[in-house]
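dude i think i finally got it to work??
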Amino acid sequence: VLGHLHCDFFPVPLDIVEELFLNLPPHQVVHVCRLVCHQWKEVCDSESLWRERCRREGYRLREASKAPEDWRLFYFLCKMRRNLLKNPRGENKMKDWQILENGGDRWKVEEVMVPHPNEAVQKHFVTSYQMCRKSQIIDLSVEGYNPSFMDHFQPDIKISDWYAPRWDCGSQYEIRVELLNERKRPVTTFAPETVYFEQWNDQQWNQMIHVFQNYGPGVRYIRFTHGGKDTQFWAGWYGIRVTDSCVEICSAMET
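look at this
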């Protein structure tokens, strides 16, 4: 059908062309339609096309008064946004995690002790009486974020992690997230101070959040590492609990 609408042989009003493009897969618009002729390229590159796609698919700005410089980029960042970590809640036991330290009675997956703010979270990883630490490395190219895109746009990289102590035992929590170059050497690192909980605490869930911005060119991988232990050397699984860890590539303007 699109071939018969070629602008050189069968002119079609551009507003109708835009409506047609709004009903096509976005990658087809960019990789196929945009190459047909100058008029179609103009429509494919137009702010109105991508702003309307955002509206129809529910991608909203955090602040309505601040529009993105590139609506197409904003659209694709929103559409591709997802958690790049695998098995973040322990639903597949320890699958996809590299165990760096497995002290005490080792890592274990349990049902949540107190309800998580996200009702979908029903399991967590729990640490023991010596240090337990686990990690994942995300290959950005494999996930669809190629080197030229990362170097040119440097989109926000948002990380979050949920952690909670047991009420009857002291514990500690650690997290370290590194943006790595092609040799897997750190470009920049987020490594806050260790969080300690005393015995007889409220046992509630806490969230650690950090956003990497303006980190420069060369980022090819992300290494996410976290863990902890109990501080009273009790046999069993009385240490820090972690779950629903997340790494996302996103737009700074997205809600």
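The chain has a mean pLDDT of 93.
im so relieved honestly
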